[in-house]
Specification:
The protein is an alpha+beta fold. The strands form 5 sheets. A 6-stranded mixed beta sheet has the order 1-2-6-3-7-17. Strands 11-13-9-14 form a 4-stranded antiparallel beta sheet, covered by helices on one side. Helix 1 crosses helix 3 and helix 3 crosses helix 10.
């Protein structure tokens, strides 16, 4: 077991959260689970803490056994019995880097100030996980008619990578759930849909030449620029003609190029250029058609390139994919979450989450958690204590509902 030094922060402001929640959030934050790092320290600590509560966990590892998902089930004081399909509380354990960000406090140590918790992961999303795990003794003592499950994943921030292995294992076992609550920061509003996302890496292979003899080379940057321009044209077309879904803050499919690199010197025709691009698509849009259009345009450039250099070419590789989520307002999991949040208004978001993967596996899902997505990934990331208190109340109502 890998442990972290104990935290001793105590809120001194008017708004408070429960000591169990705060202690758990502090412990989770103290593990540096930036996506490039292993999350085993945190996962093993949670496993051992749950075992101390009498709850067994399973770990689903990555291929290198360097990272793991955790899945655990709480049955309540009467044990498993003939319990109905339960509720999954799902969250990712990885966080984004703090490199180059100007923090006013240690990002891996909770600071409580001005009715807020400051830390990397405070809202995205160790706040939710901390509140959920802190409820374990309450879950155990309740007369649950359906179980509560914990699903903690890795590498969500780099493409919803880790949870896939857990979902695959659960699917092979025929696991069923009444619903999945993904605790991404939504200011405790119930989110019923998010866009799907696909990310790609395009590598353009040209031929080097002295820039004085430019026609003898194939300029990889210039051909990359033509593909990027095509992607931009497609984005403009989507913004103009695609049917709108005004439930989303950006009500149409978007495409954009995020990074590009290539070339060695101004007087050398660049041999290679690599750029990363993505699109985020509405429910009902055809992602295969979007991908095919970009690939077809790229393929149309290759004959022209090869008239100069046979070795020239263009490779486009899918680097990550997260399917969209689209749960109805009248679906049971939505109605449950709305009742727990005491907020009848639902919404849709442009960012991707693990909810789409759960839905694809036949597990109905919504997104609802403390904190604002506007604070995620920033220096001095924070979550209002009032939001965490709302999440605690949400969990209290969940206990009441599944004990009825």
């Amino acid at each position: 077991m890998t442990s972290a030094p104990p935290m001793t922060t105590t809120p001194t402001t008017a708004t408070r959260i429960r000591p169990a929640s705060l202690a758990m959030i502090e412990r989770l934050v103290s593990f540096d689970t930036t996506s490039r790092e292993s999350n085993l320290g945190l996962i093993e600590w949670v496993r051992d803490w749950l075992k101390g509560q009498g709850v067994e966990s399973r770990l689903v590892y990555d291929a290198e056994k360097r990272k793991a998902n955790l899945f655990a089930t709480v049955h309540g004081r009467n044990g498993p019995g003939a319990a109905r399909p339960g509720i999954v509380l799902s969250g990712h354990t990885d966080v984004v880097p703090v490199d180059g960000q100007a923090w006013d406090s240690d990002p891996f140590r909770v600071t409580v100030k001005n009715d807020r918790i400051y830390a990397r992961g405070a809202c995205d999303m160790k706040g939710f996980i901390g509140v959920a795990l802190g409820m374990t003794p309450t879950f155990l003592a309740a007369d649950l008619k359906m179980p509560i499950h914990f699903a903690l994943s890795y590498d969500e921030e780099v493409g919803c990578v880790g949870v896939r292995g857990l979902i695959d294992e659960l699917s092979r076992e025929g696991f069923k759930a009444a619903g999945v609550i993904v605790g991404e920061p939504t200011s405790m509003q119930v989110i019923v849909a998010h866009k799907g996302k696909r990310s790609y890496r395009c590598t353009v292979h040209g031929r080097e030449a002295h820039s004085a003899l430019a026609p003898q080379g194939v300029n990889a940057i210039e051909y990359a620029a033509r593909i990027i321009t095509q992607i931009r044209h497609m984005a403009d077309r989507m913004s103009q003609i695609e049917p709108r879904d005004h439930g989303f803050d950006v009500p149409f499919t978007t495409l954009q190029t995020g990074t590009i690199r290539g070339g060695t010197a101004l007087n050398i025709v660049p041999r290679e250029c690599v750029f990363d691009w993505e699109f985020r698509y509405l429910p009902g849009a055809d992602p295969d058609a979007i991908e095919s259009e970009v690939k077809a345009y790229a393929a149309s450039l290759v004959p022209e390139m090869r008239r100069v250099a046979e070795e020239a070419g263009i490779d486009i590789r899918l680097t990550s994919e997260a399917p969209g989520s689209n749960t109805g307002d009248t679906d049971a999991v939505t109605q449950l979450a709305v009742a727990l949040a005491r907020n009848p208004k639902t919404a849709k978001v442009a960012y991707a989450t693990e909810a789409g993967l759960f839905e694809k596996a036949g597990l109905p899902s919504i997104i609802c958690g403390p904190g604002s997505i506007e604070q995620a990934h920033k220096p001095n990331e924070y979550c209002d204590l009032a939001q965490l208190a709302q999440c605690e109340t949400f969990m209290d109502r969940l206990v009441e509902r599944v004990s009825a």
